[in-house]
Amino acid sequence: MRAKLSYAVTAAVLVFYFALVGSRGVMLIQAGTLLTVTFGVAVLILPVIGVWFLWKNTQFVRRANALAAELDAEGGLPVDELKRTASGRVDRDSADEVFDRRKAETEAAPDDWRTWFRLAVAYHDARDTPRARKAMQHAISLHDGKPVQTV
């Protein structure tokens, strides 16, 4: 719940920022000179890219959460079996061991979105965020029946 609240607050702050920047871009365009119109258009591009990025990220999170809920209902969510240090950080050897099992599971059933979901969690636990995201996108594509690119 805390993560959802943090995400919502961050998204709200970003939307406020995009609106503020967009209004400045409009003001520059209204000034009417070649220089201010050029800067105004450039300034308006930033909020458009930001809104697009925020929208795509929100869609990704919602789809990943839907897969987690479906997997939980099936009883297939990965169990947190990682060893932790005294400070609470994940033990690297433990994360590597779980990752190796998840990778083998995925190689044995490459068309099952569930194995890709669990592999994404293992990547995340190993602090490999880019690969975790790609594996989760692969799981989402498999679940939705969309053509899948090689990961």
What does this structure look like?
The longest helix is centred in the middle third of the chain and has 41 residues. With 151 residues, this protein is an all-alpha fold. 77% of the residues lie in helices and 0% in strands. It contains 5 helices and no strands. It is elongated, with a radius of gyration of 21 Å.
Short description:
The protein is mainly α and 151 residues long.
Residue ranges: pLDDT <50 for 5 or more in a row? none
How widely separated are the two ends? 30 Å
Structural Rg: 21 Å
Number of helices: 5
> Secondary-structure element order, as H and E?
HHHHH
Largest sheet: none
Structural class: mainly alpha
Strand content: under 5%
Strand and helix map with partners:
Blueprint lengths: L1 H30 L2 H41 L17 H17 L4 H13 L3 H16 L7
Helix pairs in contact: 1-2, 2-5, 3-4, 4-5
List keywords for this structure.
mainly alpha; elongated; about 0% strand; 5 helices
